[in-house]
User: Which sequence fits this backbone?
């Protein structure tokens, strides 16, 4: 039931692997994570971790546009009460970020930041208590203008984006911006350990959660959502 590694079918984009950071290198240190079959990295200086190559980022943008959304998976052990960026799409001219996913340990939220026509919009998933110093697994499902977050097997409140995600991931995005892992704005670099940071396409959140062993929990969610006791 393991999610396949990044291949030529563009269904899974392993960000550490794509950046070339799935090996030893500057800015991160190899450590043990909950999944013994893949590397985990303590982030020491996200500024030194290279971006995803333009061609691979273009493939990712194309996949987001084709499916009008994405599934983002990650395992993280974030330092308590810190604010840390998991992923960010930053402009190559250093004029700011186009899109970012930030675990805001100070507010207890997961923040999605989108820049539309030069104006920043931030949407927060409340009660996303990720910065606890303990391992957490997230499944973030973004489809058009809505976002649904699962932490481990728990379904959080959904959030609505101000614009559809495919209007952020424009066709020419890879030519003007690049995708960075753990690197945020000023003082927003991720502090802690990351593992299995992946964009996944061609599947559903339910299948992902089932593969994580959450089948009993997801059936409870369906029951509660339908107001059946």
Assistant:
């Amino acid at each position: 039931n393991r999610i396949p590694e990044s291949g030529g079918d563009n269904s899974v984009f392993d960000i550490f692997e794509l950046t070339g950071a799935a090996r030893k290198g500057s800015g991160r240190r190899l450590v043990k994570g909950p999944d013994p079959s893949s590397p985990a990295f303590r982030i020491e200086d996200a500024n030194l971790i290279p971006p995803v190559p333009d061609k691979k980022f273009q493939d990712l943008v194309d996949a987001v546009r084709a499916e009008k959304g994405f599934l983002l998976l990650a395992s993280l052990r974030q330092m308590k009460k810190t604010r840390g960026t998991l992923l960010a799409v930053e402009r190559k001219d250093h004029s700011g970020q186009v899109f970012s996913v930030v675990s805001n340990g100070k507010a207890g939220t997961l923040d999605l930041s989108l820049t539309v026509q030069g104006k920043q919009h931030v949407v927060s998933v409340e009660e996303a208590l990720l910065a606890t110093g303990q391992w957490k697994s997230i499944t973030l499902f973004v489809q058009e203008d809505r976002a649904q977050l699962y932490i481990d097997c728990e379904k959080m409140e959904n959030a609505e984006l101000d614009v559809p995600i495919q209007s952020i991931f424009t066709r020419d995005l890879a030519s003007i911006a690049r995708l960075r892992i753990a690197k945020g704005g000023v003082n927003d670099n991720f502090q802690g350990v990351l593992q299995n940071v992946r964009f996944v396409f061609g599947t559903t959140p339910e299948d992902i959660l089932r593969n994580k062993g959450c089948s009993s929990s997801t059936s409870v969610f369906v029951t509660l959502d339908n107001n059946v006791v």
